[in-house]
Amino acid sequence: MNRDDALRLLTEEPIKIGHAVGFTKLIKMHNDWIRDMMFCKSDTTLQAHRESYKTTCLSIAIACLMVLVPNKRILFVRKSDDAVKEIIEQIRKILTSDEMRYVAQAIYGIDLTLKTSNAFALSTNLVTDKRGSEQLLGCGIGGSMTGKHFDY
Fold first, then answer.
1. What confidence tier does 85 reach under pLDDT thresholds 50, 70, 90?
2. Does 148 or 93 have the greater pLDDT score?
3. How far apart are the first and last CA of the chain?
4. I need a labelling partner for 80 at 20 to 30 A (CA). Which of 8, 22, 86, 106 fits?
């Protein structure tokens, strides 16, 4: 896989990352959801039934964004801290998969590793800016966001 193929995979067919890490029930509709989550220019609401893989698609989208635009910061908020931990763990597993490491190697020429990895934050070694804040920060609705800045 060359750099262009890796970028095309993340931007046009992120569902293949999902399939590679075990989410084999994802279909074309989910690919569209993931791409909308990554690239939509306006606020949108995704409404779908329970067990429709909305959160799985979000996890894949966040992991892909962390590789595609590593200097952007993402805030992930859910109702409870426990719900946040569950999703952060899912994103961690996607980022540390052999498939995602292979894609990052093709794009950047370096081995993808996690510099920060805890229950509420993730950062990769792909970050090149000097801000020092995590790429992904998760918090429950009762958490504090004061003084923090995010792009997504």
1. very high
2. 93
3. 29
4. 22
Residue 118's CB is within 10 A of a number of other CB atoms, namely 12
* Separation between Cα atoms, residue 130 and residue 79, nearest integer Å: 31
**DSSP one-letter code for 133:** -
Give residue-wise pLDDT tens across range 12-62: 999 999 999 999 999 999 999 999 999 987 777 766 667 668 889 999 999
Tokens describing residue 25: 């029930």
109 φψ region: left (φ > 0), alpha (ψ -120 to 50), beta (else): left
Using alpha carbons only, give the angle 105, 98, 56 rounded to the nearest 5 degrees: 110
pLDDT at 141: 84
pTM of the model: 0.93
Q: How far is CA 95 from CA 89, 91, 103, in A?
A: 10, 6, 10
| Count helices and strands in the chain by DSSP H and E runs | 6, 4
Contact 21, 94 (CB under 8 A): yes
Distance CA 152, CA 130 (A): 18
Grouping H, G, I as helix, E, B as strand and the rest as coil, residue 67 is: helix
